[in-house]
Sequence to fold (388 residues):
Amino acid sequence: MKVPLLDLKAQYKTIKKEIDEALIGVAESQGCILGPEVEKLEKSLCGYLDSKYATGVSSGTDALLIALMAIDIKPDDEVIIPTYSFFATAGVVSRMNAKPVFIDSDPVTFNINPADIKKLITKKTKAIIPVHLYGQSCDMKPIMEIAGENNLKVIEDAAQSIGTQYGDGRKAGTIGHIGCFSFYPSKNLGCFGDGGLVTTNDETLAERLKILRVHGGKPKYYHKIIGGNFRLDAIQAAVLNVKLPHLDSWTKRRQENAELYTKFFKNSGLSEEEGKLKYDEGNKVLLPKAVYKNQDLKYYHIYNQYVIRVQDRDALRKHLTENEIGTEIYYPVPFHMQECFSYLGYKKGQFPVSEWCAADSVALPIYPELSEEQIEFTVKSIKEFINK
Ligand SMILES: *Cc1c(COP(=O)(O)O)cnc(C)c1O
Fold:
């Protein structure tokens, strides 16, 4: 049995007719950039996320970059970000010539620990970028409180969390000042290339984001500010307009798959419960925990990734690869240990939780079309390795 980490062809098969028609529609219209498909997508996502404004952009990375431009980040401003995230979160801060200030992870959720933020705030701190990792929301209430007290802007990196609910029911990306989303094909809502979105409830920021998307020109060819080419293609929006109505059912399948993993891990004697933080006889595999699950939320966790922790992770991965089971590490090196950030002067050992996550975590296949047999087989293969 083969268990790929992700099978985008399986998803395409289920919506092929609608997608093909949408692609041909764009070809025939030859309206290739922005236009009605992008406007339709922005409107639908405002509704889906319950956000006042949404602006389609060229990628999730560009969503973060344009957000920093919109809040007018200046050279030497400090931006507090997790040390454990996809590279884009840190890259955009440096590209603005601002200074990334790293923060450690919460050991249960892998998200930032709000308790650590306060001591990092200086006169130069301008913004915080909480990342809703793997499909689960950061604890936004204390983050927004600290930001309010210190006059900081909050840019949510919700690239992995489209539709995710925070404990109070609001959706990730609509709680801070600007929310950033990615439509990279491996995200829960993926297009056929690169694409992204920024959301905000602030009219002034919304207007700035729209102008920055087209080189800062308004009207066209008259520039008060400097923006860039952050436009979204019509063809990507057309694909997303077909996919969006399916997103909730796909999310449900991902949640069901996570339940199945828990069941099989428990039955196999490898784990006693979700969210354990210490290895022992009954917990050789540490399972992810959805912290808002018991609050009657539909989207407590959307499982963009299902990430377990095990000792001897690299040897386990090798074993799973031999059994044709796809895995990935999100992420093997925290930012503070990346060569490109050595100029910031951080040291190994400074963020022990993130370093532990980087050393022991591994993502298992969780995509919606995965079968129960594939999940059972994956757990069986892990058990085979651990009991060897
Ligand atoms: C995917 C991702 C991004 C970047 O999105 P792209 O569309 O690939 O540019 C940013 N942050 C996080 C956390 C991501 O997972």
In short: The chain has a mean pLDDT of 97. The longest strand covers residues 53-57. The longest helix spans residues 8-29. Residues 134 and 228 are 29 Å apart (CA to CA).
